[in-house]
Structure formats: C-alpha cells, structure tokens
Specification:
The protein is mainly beta and 298 residues long. It has one helix at 3-17; strands at residues 24-33, 36-47, 50-58, 64-75, 78-86, 92-102, 105-113, 119-130, 133-141, 147-157, 160-168, 174-185, 188-191, 196-199, 282-283, 286-288, 291-293, 296-297. The chain is 5% helix and 48% strand.
Length: 298
C-alpha cells in the first residue's frame, strides 16, 4: 500500500480512537491540475468501534468516481477494512484488508476483486524512522501471478514533504518517481507537478508571495449535529456546435448525340441471265417416249 493511503487510514483510526460514539465529519475540496479541475466531497461517521466513509470526485469532463468503505478496530493496534470503488464507466472493484500497527510500523495485507472476477493481492508496511521521516515497501500481485514490488521514503520538514520511490516489475524493469507537496496556506497544498489542492474554501494570494503559517491548534468543540453540504458537481459546458459543410451538387452533364447521317437505299437492279450466243444446231425429229418431236433449231 502506498504511504499516502496508509497514512490516511491511520489518521482515520486515530480519529476513531479519540472521537465520541456516532461522531461524523465531512469535507469537500478542489484540485487544480495540469489536466483540469477535479471537485470532490466526502462524509464519514464512527460508532461502535467502526468508521464508515463515502466520497466522490467529479473530473473535468463530468466523469464521477466514488469510494465507500468501513474500517473496524478488531483489537488494540489491529484493524480491518472493506469497501467498493466505482469508476466513471460504472465498473466496480471490491477491496478488503487488515492492518496491524506496533513499534512505529504499520503492516497491511489486502485483496481486490474486479468486475470480471479477476483478483489481485497487496502487502506492505510503513515505518516511522524519525520525526517527519517515513519509509515504505510492499508488493502487488496480479491475477496472472506477476508481482510488482515497490519501495519509497518520505521526509517532511517545515511545510514541505518530499517523496521518492522505485517500482520493480516482474521482469526486472524499474520505474522511479519523486515529488513534493507544500502547504502554502491553511487548507491549500501545492505539488511540484503543478497541482494545487484547496480543502473547503477559497484562498487569495497577492503577487507571488504566500505566507506559510504554522500548524493550527485544533480545539475540539462540543458535538453538534452537522448536516453535510451536498457534493460539488461540476457540469461541463456543452460542446460548441459542429460546423457542417454541405457541398453543392455537381453540375449535370447532358450529352447530345450528333444526328445520324441520312440513310441511302439503293433499289436492286434486275439481272437477266441469258445463254451465251453460239451457232444454231438443227435437231432432227425424234421420239421422246410416246411423243414425236419434230425437227427444230437449237
């Protein structure tokens, strides 16, 4: 588990141990990032040794992600948690785990089940090495059996916390990451990546100078029934109308065939076939069958 998640869970557990039964809390904030503005809200309540929470974040394009869950103190220094995370596409992941804290170290094991039934397991620990210094390590094993290990360290001094870490994949490849977060005003945190997070209010700065105050002293008031404000929902403006280009119809090409040449009909000319002229021959009279043919020229 990454340190920020475990530290958040630890803070919730401390709140659980020091809060009267059925206490509740809520909050909202806005994150201004290079990728857009994110608005979030959360609410939680504690009673009978358990704390339940619900929250959501709306992205710059209107997508909503939610997370609900419960943390229960099962024994001194031992806690269990379970919950559901749902993304903007409606797909949910079930998560559950156990945390044990002793001697300045909190160890955690957990599992996740995706919408298709695939599972992943996590294990890790966070140790407080010195005031403002923490180290963490752990592993994540996917449904295919591939494991990614990670380690990191966090150092906090004044109003700034610096963090660096390394993740090693199943085939030995490594990825390093680092960053910092600075408290520039009450409820306002900026990161080296250009993100500014404002919790529950608006902060105005003059010029480039921002006064960084000391940590405020928290005085717990008497329990008062609190009605959480509705979550801030960002509704993106409608997209500009699309320009549709309608091409003019192509001109019609009319083909006019040339006139046919006049037809000439030639009448057939009569042909007479006659015997070629020659000398006449005297044929004497003779019988043809029973008929007598007299002599004649031929």
């Amino acid at each position: 588990m990454k340190p920020r998640y475990l530290l958040t869970a630890t803070a919730s557990l401390i709140f659980l141990a020091s809060t009267p039964a059925f206490a509740g809390w809520s909050g909202h904030g806005t994150a201004y990032t290079p990728h857009g503005v994110y608005n979030g809200a959360h609410y939680g309540s504690c009673g009978g040794g358990s704390c339940s929470h619900a929250g959501g974040v709306v992205g710059p394009y209107g997508g909503l992600a939610t997370n609900t869950g419960t943390v229960t103190r099962t024994a001194p220094g031992h806690f269990s948690n379970s919950g559901t995370a749902t993304g903007p596409n409606g797909r949910s992941v079930q998560h559950a785990g156990d945390t044990s804290c002793a001697g300045g170290t909190c160890s955690h094991t957990g599992n996740l089940t995706g919408p298709n039934g695939q599972t992943a397991s996590t294990a890790g620990s966070v140790t407080r090495d010195a005031p403002g210094q923490y180290s963490s390590s752990g592993t994540i094993t996917g449904s295919s059996g591939n494991t990614v290990s990670h380690s990191a360290s966090t150092n906090c001094a004044g109003a700034t916390c610096d963090r660096s870490g390394t993740a090693t994949g199943a085939y030995g490849g490594t990825v390093t990451h680092s960053g910092s977060a600075t408290r520039v005003a009450p409820g306002v945190v900026t990161t080296a990546g250009g993100t500014t997070v404002v919790h529950g209010g608006t902060v105005t700065t003059v010029g480039a100078t921002v006064a960084v105050g000391t940590a405020p002293v928290v005085i717990a008031p008497a329990p008062v029934a609190y009605v959480p404000p509705p979550p801030v929902v960002y509704v993106p403006p409608p997209p500009p109308p699309k320009t549709v280009y309608v091409a003019p119809p192509p001109p019609r090409v009319v083909y006019v065939a040339p006139p046919l040449p006049p037809t000439v009909v030639y009448a057939p000319r009569p042909v007479y076939v006659t015997r070629a002229p020659g000398p006449a021959v005297m044929v004497p009279g003779h019988w043809v069958g029973r008929a007598w043919v007299p002599a004649h020229w031929a």
